[in-house]
Each structure stands twice: as structure tokens, then as C-alpha cells.
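quick one before i forget lol
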Amino acid sequence: MTRMTARALPRAEGRPATPAPARALPRAKGRPATRGPARALRPVILALTVLLAGCGLAAPGPDRPQAVTVLGPWTGAQGDAFRALLDGSGVPYSYEGTAAQREVLLSQVQSGSPPDVAVLPGVGELAEYARGKHLRDLGSIDPPLYDPEQYGAPWQPRLPDLPGQVFWVPLKADLKSLVWYRKGEPAPTSPAPLPAWCMGMGDDGASGWPGSDWIEDLMLQMYGTEVYTQWATGSRDPAGRTLVPWTDLRVLKAWQTWSALMAQDVREKPGRTGTGEAPDRESDRESDRARGADPGEVPDQAPAGGAAERALLTDHRGEPHSGGLLFSLPGCSLEHQGSFARTAFYGDEHRDDVAVVGSERVLPGSPWGRSQAQARGREVSGDFAVLFNDTPGARRLLRHLASEEGQRSWARDAKVFSANSKVRVASDAADTFIEKNLVGGQRLCLDASDLMPATVRDAFYEATLLQLADPTSDPLPLLKSLQRVQQREEEETEPPWLTGVCSAPQ
């Protein structure tokens, strides 16, 4: 039986409590232990392959400046395009590209040798480095490294406990709240049934994040930017009460809406009434003890066939070189995925074979899920650059990366999107739709899980997998567990964790 180890969630109907990790630095292996699907279910030894390239790698001398060290997430073709962007700075550099940049960065910081410049997705984890006094305040550097007017909200979120300081600048932006479909087929205009959705939860190290994207988008479309912000940042009222805890009825409704979609084709299991009754996880735990199994592990309660089970067993990218789920998963026709899918998943082979619409008309739910629905906001994500070592070379390089010229070159050559309001490189209708929304066509909110502390984020990912394992069950026990994880974080850092995470209030 496939088993999922509940490491991030505290005890909830039989789950063991997990001690809160030290807060000095983000966790190296804080992602859910559950390995989703496809690649993730096969025995894998994670090789932190370092792709090094660059110039100025010889030992520095009197006339040879020290190479600026850069850590980033881009490998392959995008890694080559990023090196070309670095070349344009004229600064000697050493670039390390890896999909495990979070683990690599943590190891380097702990050993006292962080890179000069690092690029990570989201700012929740970077905020912990800032609070640990590892990052340089970019706003205090003179002359400025970039024009702040070119990066409006929500691309410059702030730490309320470190007022007036800004530690990051986005080098790449992606629009979420999107639904992709194959060009030539009818555009979706109303909530789609379960068989229409191409879905996979698996990832090499962060399985479950596609499920978190569904929950986040539902929260945004159902309740708007203010509620979304309060939930994502752990905001409190003047009396110190959490405004939108995980157990809030609105959060529960979003989870129930997603679960109801995923349960549409689940056959009734023995002992189930179909009323959404929560599973008896304490009984599961007692059974584990009787068998001599580790009661700290939660059995994979896979549904009897159906899309939820397939999603758990499917990598979100599809099989290698398959053109992504939209072109390789039989029977489905829609994919809820960010703008990065066009280049990262569909690739050159199918890049021109896809079209896109906003998710607000297609997601499940009522009454807002209808053909005339208007988006209440769009979720976005970004890859943010930070400065660990403030050297003249690092300043010059980061200034080039964030410049209008650098961002335009990067977006054009790598086929990515920029948060810089001056950059426009769209060549067709899909890219134009994405760019228009990224630079002010809609209220924008940063990805909620990317704003959360690492322990909360990881527990969120794991909870989506546990819910998919039995989509007919009541999600409330999982939400209570998530709230306890958040409460432990609040003992270390008082919410809100970040401010300015949406471009405008609703």
C-alpha cells in the first residue's frame, strides 16, 4: 500500500503532532513527504546537479574582479537564456542552476557561504532570510538598483516588522487564474465537469502545489482580494483574532467546492454514507499499531478509481517530452495552470496549439461560476532576486537583471513574462492576454502559499494530497490541523507576515 507520511500536519483524528522546526532558517526538507505520482512514486535519489557556466571563473588577481555567484532555478533552455542575460551585464559571474535551489541555498547559508545573488519562487521563504538579517535592503542602495515605478503592487511586498525596507525584485512573473485549452476547440464559458480537467499533483519535491493553486483561485474568485489577503497573510483584527483562519467557513467552502468536483466520479466505498463524514483516522492509527506499522504514517486512502486517484498518480508536467497533460492525458480538454505552462510544459511543439481564458468562468461553484462572471482578481507568482552579499559587482549585475532593457531581452529570448510594467513582447493573442493582466488589466494577488511561512506552505501542499486521497471526506479535520501549524508559526512571527500582496483592495 502506498503510504503518505504526515510530517507537516499536527495531530488531527489520529495524526501525530510534529514539533515546530527551528526558525533561524527555512527548512531544507520542509516539503510534504508524500511523493505524488509518476516520477515521484518511483524510487528517486535526488541529485542536486549543479549546472555551472559563466565567465571570470579563474582565480581573481589585481586586474581580475571576483566573479559574482548567482543561484537560480533555471536549467536547460531557460538556463541558457538566463546565462545570456547575465552575459549582457558585463560582470564576471558563476551561475548555479538547479531545481533544488531552496535546499542548495539553505545549505550554503548554513555553511556561511551564500551566493551573492539568489533567485527563489515566492517571498514567504525569503522573508525568513530577511528576518534573520541575511539579506541586503535593496531600497537603501544608492543609486537605486531599479526603478520602483516599473514594479508596482503586488511585486514589492513588504515585511511589517521591518518597515521601510524592501529585499527583493521579481525577475520573472507568471499569471495564474488561467485555464488552457487546445486551439481549434470551443472556448470554455461555464463551469466544467470533472472529466474535462487534465490534472496531476506530482512534483519532484513539492507534490500537491497544483491542488493549492485550485484552492487559492477559488478563494480569490469566490470572496475577492480582501478576504484572500487576510487568509494568505494570517492577518488579525485589533483584538488579536485571526481574521480568516483555516477553519473559517469561507475557506471550508473553497475546499468543499474543490472536493465536490474531484469526487464526481468516485464510487462509494464500504462504510461511506456519501454525506461527507470525516474518516476515522484514530481507527486507522490503531490498525497501524496492531499491524506493527508506524502510527505516524497515514495510509493512502486512494479512491476506487477516478480522477482524484489519477491526479495523485500523475506528475503535473506529464511524462517527459509529452507536450504536457493537455496533449498526453486521454480524455481531458482543460488545464488549470499558470502562464509558465506554455513554455515549460507544452514546449515548442505545442506552444502554438493552445489558447487561454480566465479561470473565473470555468471553475466550479455557484452563483459566480457562470458565463458572464467577472474575475474578482488574478493570482500571480514570481521568481524574486535577493542580495546576500553587497558587492559592487553584485549591484551591477542585479541592476542589469531588473532593468527595462534586461527584462525585455530575458522575456523575448526565454519566452517568459516580466513584472516590469514597461516590458511588452507578446506576439499572439494568448501572450497578449497574459501581459495585459500582468501589468494592470486586473487586480493581482501573489500566490497565497508563496506568501506563507515554509512550514505552513508545506502543510498546505500535503493537505491537498490527503484530501484527494478521499475527496468525499470532510476537509474540516485537515483545516483544523493547518490552523494548528499556523498558530505555531504565529508564536515566532506575529502576522501579517507580509503586506502589499494584492494590487488593489476589493
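fyi The CA atoms of residues 145 and 398 lie 7 Å apart.
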